[in-house]
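CORE FACILITY INTAKE
Project code: CF-77B
Contact: R.S. (postdoc)
Sample description: multi-component assembly, two entities in total
Requested service: structural model of the whole complex
Turnaround: standard
Below are the sequence entries exactly as provided by the requester. Do not edit them.
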Amino acid sequence: MSREVPFDNDVPAPAQRDSAYRRKIYLRGTREDVHVPFVEVLPVGKGEPSGPGGADAGPIGLDGCEPVPLVRLYDTTGPGSDPARGLPPLRLRWIKERGDTAEHEGRSPGPLDEGRGAARTRRVRTGSAMSGHGADIAGAGPPEVGRAPRRSTPEARSVTQLHYARQGIITPEMDFVATRESVDAELVRQEVAAGRAIMPSNVNHPELEPMIIGRRFLVKVNANIGTSSVTSSAAGEVEKLSWALRWGADTVMDLSTGPGIHTTREWILRNSPAPVGTVPIYQALEKAGGRPEDLTWEIYRDTLIEQAEQGVDYFTVHAGVLLRYVPMTMNRVTGIVSRGGSIMAAWCLAHHEENFLYAHFDEMCEIMTAYDIAFSLGDGLRPGSVADANDEAQLAELATLGELAEVAWSKDVQVMIEGPGHVPMDKIAQNVELERELCHDAPFYTLGPLTTDVAPGYDHITSAIGAAMIAMHGTSMLCYVTPKEHLGLPDLQDVKEGMIAYKIAAHAADLAKQHPRAREWDDALSRARFEFRWEDQFNLSLDPSTARGFHDETLPAGPAKTAHFCSMCGPKFCSMQISQRVRDFAAEHGLSPTQSLQVGLSEKASEFRSSGAEIYTVQNVPADA
Amino acid sequence: MSREVPFDNDVPAPAQRDSAYRRKIYLRGTREDVHVPFVEVLPVGKGEPSGPGGADAGPIGLDGCEPVPLVRLYDTTGPGSDPARGLPPLRLRWIKERGDTAEHEGRSPGPLDEGRGAARTRRVRTGSAMSGHGADIAGAGPPEVGRAPRRSTPEARSVTQLHYARQGIITPEMDFVATRESVDAELVRQEVAAGRAIMPSNVNHPELEPMIIGRRFLVKVNANIGTSSVTSSAAGEVEKLSWALRWGADTVMDLSTGPGIHTTREWILRNSPAPVGTVPIYQALEKAGGRPEDLTWEIYRDTLIEQAEQGVDYFTVHAGVLLRYVPMTMNRVTGIVSRGGSIMAAWCLAHHEENFLYAHFDEMCEIMTAYDIAFSLGDGLRPGSVADANDEAQLAELATLGELAEVAWSKDVQVMIEGPGHVPMDKIAQNVELERELCHDAPFYTLGPLTTDVAPGYDHITSAIGAAMIAMHGTSMLCYVTPKEHLGLPDLQDVKEGMIAYKIAAHAADLAKQHPRAREWDDALSRARFEFRWEDQFNLSLDPSTARGFHDETLPAGPAKTAHFCSMCGPKFCSMQISQRVRDFAAEHGLSPTQSLQVGLSEKASEFRSSGAEIYTVQNVPADA
């Protein structure tokens, strides 16, 4: 029933196809043209599927039992489209309506934009190097959208969601987010205005379905994708994008360093309903011939404009790697492990000048406020091993990021702060406390952290532990880590494994933070489990096909899906059944939790004995059971 | 190089074969005949393997670099043997030496011991139902050891490690544990004497390599194995045992409910160097025809003796499910999910009498103290969903377990306390705090807990998060959860996935608790990573073959193992390399972390520029890089 093929143009997004009882719906915001996606899970009940009940009718009765509520889950899969055409520009009307931006000629892309080796770039463009998965977009360039780049008009000082929020305006984007998060739009506006939440939303990324990153909202997950010089293709990265979204990615970062950087990014942006982040220094370094010492503010600035016009929603900027902090990394076990951090450290030492990203920070803000690109202030000195966690270098940089956040806010630019990395569990809470204090409650966005260094191949697990904990303490977005971390570039299976581990971490944190809607999902699944509604349990699962497949391995027969037992205990010996009998008995005899069984009940005991002498026996049992 | 075949009789245990640089060694305790196993990882360095250096020589110099220390890891794989012969009885001399136990005729096993369906029992005994994996033990009964069951002599009141510890005796078992944990034997004795740690070690399980469960020691992991009525065979369970040990299981629980219970357990015990735990009520229920209401103390007592004589090291006993607590589960989302708990609840209601395990607890202690079997006081009312966590039923039972722990201690019986289950992260710390308070610091042994209910198929991850956290707060042993939890019985791959996730959780907790030796492992691996000693990084990994395999997927060439880059960034752009250049430069110029770069260093900058103009280039690069 379910499929895991990354994408397929003839049919709706995979989330819609899992089951007739798990389907995509849209709810309207306050505005007519705000349509917010959800996945709705309808109860199948104990029998075989026979068509969904009334979707909007609320609780649905099953076999005369207590009504089972439907559950609506946050959906990130996007509207679905032909990747070669790109997604519909749903925000375009809202952006135009505001009248504070205009199209202009923009910067002229050149061959250098694709990175070193323009020859290779052609190969990506024409698709001859593409993998089998990407056949549908091979042979063509990225989607042509027929739009010139847009930026703020000369009159408009800023076109950011922060700017509007501070003016008391609830934008359609905020309306969308409020519906998506099931909160009041005014809460969204207030949190954005205060800098405690951000909504990355470049005016050149109208395909975006707005989302919010902030402590008061659901914890979000970012998926990193991108080519390197050793491996990957543009088509492969678009596949990874759709695949990551299918498993719940809230934003994606394109970390490409390989050939075809500009084109790969164009493909990704035109097909991403989620905000796209980048680390512009990677492309700038390519333009500088790969030599950190040859980087200049002019090259970097040109790269910012290039990416701003394409529609990148947030930039990781390593402006906190100051010259005087570099020697603090000398005695570390793993030195500087951030690519951006090491590039800037090398630049600082080579020139004996202050980091040019720090020196030109004001100018950078002026650019970003004109497109509404958010800062993700990079932690270039983050620890790369548990030994280096919470050290002087890391914390010195964090204080500088706090200083820069205030500069960004003064220009109406949205800001979040990046965090580690590798941190043992006992030092996780301190990371959040210091970030909140030093960075004035700007949203925190952490990579993991990994809680031990000893399990390469399983760093989605070492870091899901840290991610869940740091999110519980207040981190707003988690950058996923795949099983390939430290070992290689993730393939589609790795992307899925990383996403699942991080959706678990994020949801576990939502529960721990007692998010008002988080428990609904768990309770619905647990009730289905207790009542042996197997199909409902599968449909409510984070990964329905895996849950169904695991069940089928030991009990593949169709009737086992409706059986009142599972393969762990077998049909003769089931705690859930015994427990149900206990419950039924107690209920029938009007027992309440506060009422003692000690008084006047011994005669009931024999009644229980006789009624329960035969444990419920299921007919459809495998022959050898 | 590495193999994942579960077992193979002609060669040593798999851990020894991973590499010439990862090998099993034994360290001597205080006594001559105490030999404690470790896995020693010797540095390969940056070149190809050419034979190990001097193992006992301490740090080993590589290519003129700083010496790299060897690392010794805790080893659970056991001495290795032919499963049909069983393991050598290494403790037998120690047990006999004490002169407080004697062999006796013991109980006569009968056909009912195998569970219902004696015909099926024969099938298991003769091996005709065994899987292909177990061909070596097919056709034969379990190992014949030629020993009669042993118990305390009439003169000896108790033969438990707790009894000896209270008398100030350091047993060979304590000596073994002290060497294994790298601590003083007196600390071991004190913690056991105080009831804060246990060393499950039945006198009828001389094959045991002693281990300890307590907050001051390394966090341990239990693996559940066992047949059910729907699936599994004795041979398959012995395979799972060895496989679980290979991945680091510290104890195993045989939860068999299927046919051949007695014989399956005999196979497991004779082949387990780790303590074996059981839930005797499962077998007792079989003897009672599967009807909870027909259970009696006499049937249960007979089962305890049977298992005691076989050598089971700890019993899960659900003596805290009191009659008056049962109605407290009525309004739960998932009622009673513990099998033992639901059986006892059904029995209590059927008879309207107090739980017979509670009523006969003193007598049970007299049996267990005569063999040195530890209590694992079961949490029959543990929550089965996050909705039910830390509720009245759970906590009422916990208080009763604390009361029972004191009774056990009064009879010199070792005790640990079982804990949940399903608990959202914000309620995890409270579980440990209450256990310590109500159960007087008896070691806590928890199942997970799962931190969310929504990810069936991935409950090794939902629960590794909770397990790591609860262990950080003071849980001494974690019961693993496999990906098949709630869906089916684990196969070998599931056992491995569960074990790896839990070894990560346990080690992350050891780090967070600042266990004196925990960091050595992480630091050794991180240094290897930073210095591009790929082979050392693999050998130090929790799962070397997976780490090596993932690396090889993108860079399979032999030379890539010695390359100073990886596939994530490629050879032209590597943060580790840039970072090393920064470090080398700073070191050469006598910079220290406290010294500002601002003064008198600008002339050095040009030097750095010229030295670093060419980033280190590796020759052995894949052709298309």
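Facility notes:
- DSSP finds 21 helices and 15 strands in chain B.
- Chain B touches chain A through 139 residues (CB under 8 Å).
Invoice: internal transfer
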